[in-house]
Amino acid sequence: MRPRVHLIAQRTGAALVALLPAAAGVAQDAAARPTFSSGYRFVEITGEELFANVCQGCHMPDASGAAGAGTYPSLIANPNLATSSYAVHLVVNGRRGMPAFGDMMTDGQVAAVVNYLRTHFGNSYTDAVTAREVREVRR
Prior knowledge:
Blueprint (H helix, E strand, L loop, with lengths): L1 H31 L14 H13 L6 E2 L3 E2 L11 H10 L13 H13 L11 H8 L1
Antiparallel strand pairs: 1-2
């Protein structure tokens, strides 16, 4: 039995060594691509980037929402987004299962992601939110 275990370990080791050059290439490719924020504060600037890297994890890439361990509402043609201050308040302060992102985003980032949501996914609310309006909600 001992020689068989040794043979398996030897073959596994050889297979791993053969994969190292491919893994190194993946690491180099990953370094060339944009990444998620690495710290507590988000580094993404545009609403599209923020949605892709923060919001879509729960609300899905097409903003259709999801149900499972929790319920994540659809943002598609969402009438709750008609009132910009409501959306700003939710992003800054959170609600129920949605975490508060106010400490992780600047006023400009909050405005960018809210404006993105309000003008995409079947939403056509064109009165843009400003960083100043976000600052007012924080008070």
